[in-house]
Amino acid sequence: MLSFRRVLVSIAFLINASFMMAQFPVGIDHSDDSLPAQMRELVSKYCRTEYEGARLDASSWSKIQPLVWWRSSPEYSQIDVISRYEVDSEPESSHGKYIVGVHYRLLGIYDMANGYVPEPAGATQDVSFTVTNENTEWRIADAENTYPHPSRAAMLKWLNDKIAGATDAAAKARYQEALKLLQAQSASPFAK
């Protein structure tokens, strides 16, 4: 027969174990429901930084570097000028990575060799970003389109800076023409 003391110790152990399990639940599914929202937020930060013109200024790499796995800013031959962007609310999860879609409203494309070409009103561009982790740290690993996507205001500033520093007459004329074309476009993302 069990002694009264053993019964009390057993009951106390069961109560303590139940209390500990209530305080620190151990679930069967170890997935983190907040990860999709974190992936969306990460890509949103990247898009905001790009929108503000960070990719156009080499000294702003420190703003983008913590968001991506790239060692340096990718080289580019064109700049996709946008009026706004929208990040998908539900990233897709696949094989330990997330795919996050971004929809850009394009104003125009500045080609480094040929200059600026305005896009038709309402033009859009869809880009998928791949987000992966390393040692529990999540960053953007890849994008379908690695061209900069600055706002109209950031691009106007970039063009003015290029005009001010241009020594080549042909390059200066290309920057001035691009500035004129971009200034003629509406800054509103809802312009028709």
Strand residue percentage:
25-35%
Seen as an oligomer or otherwise, the chain set is single chain
Question: DSSP helix count?
Answer: 5
The CATH class designation is: Alpha Beta
Number of strands: 6
Low-confidence stretches: 21-30
- List the domain count as a whole number: 1
Description:
The protein is an alpha+beta fold. Strands 1, 2, 3, 4, 5 and 6 form a six-stranded antiparallel sheet that branches. α4 runs antiparallel to α5. The longest helix has 20 residues. It is elongated and about 100 Å long. About 5% of the residues have low confidence.
What does the secondary structure layout of this molecule look like, with pairings?
Blueprint: H1 4-23, H2 35-51, H3 61-64, E1 78-87, E2 92-94, E3 97-111, E4 115-118, E5 124-134, E6 137-143, H4 152-165, H5 169-184
Antiparallel strand pairs: 1-3, 2-3, 3-4, 3-5, 5-6
Write out key terms for the chains shown:
6-stranded antiparallel beta sheet, Nuclear Transport Factor 2, Chain: A
How do you describe this structure in short?
The chain is an alpha+beta fold and 192 residues long. 37% of the residues lie in helices and 26% in strands.
